[in-house]
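User: Structure please.
Assistant: Input sequence and predicted structure:
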Amino acid sequence: ELYAARSRVEGVASVSLERGVMLDRADRSDEAVVALQRALQLATSVDSNYLRAAVLFKLSSVAGYKGRIDEAERHAREALRLGEEFDGLKSFGLVDLGNAFLYRKQLKPAEQHFREAVDISVRAGASRSEARARLALGAVLVRVGSVTDALAQAKAAFDYYNQTGFVAQRSRALTVIAQAQERTGDLAGAEA
């Protein structure tokens, strides 16, 4: 009976997390935060580190996009601590943490977090996390002038997104590829 009750609460927390994700995708971030805070409260009540970390990563992402960078970093760091044993989650969290640095225009720490996320994803065989990390890394590498590496990272992300049908991410990867090609002087490639 206790296990069933715990499972129900964990299920409600998962539903609240998904509701928060969908509200955020619909540009209803204030409502998303309410749903995510509920999910966090429920995940904490059943002591689910995995679910708590997942919610905190999403809260980090929402805070970052809202310009609340300190809050985004705080959520990402706490989620990384909780999700240490879950490589796929850890990779997503490192990208969120890297994004917090990127918002502050601190490119080197952002690059370091993105590289670590790529390494963890590769070791874990987490293709989706790897593509996300490679795309973020490619974008920051264009900014720091490492265009050859940026091109390789963005092309790897593009290949994954092209195969799996993630249209928005594929478009972002193409944008990074074009930016890198433009920086190398390959204007024909950048326009293609």
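The two ends are 61 Å apart (CA to CA).
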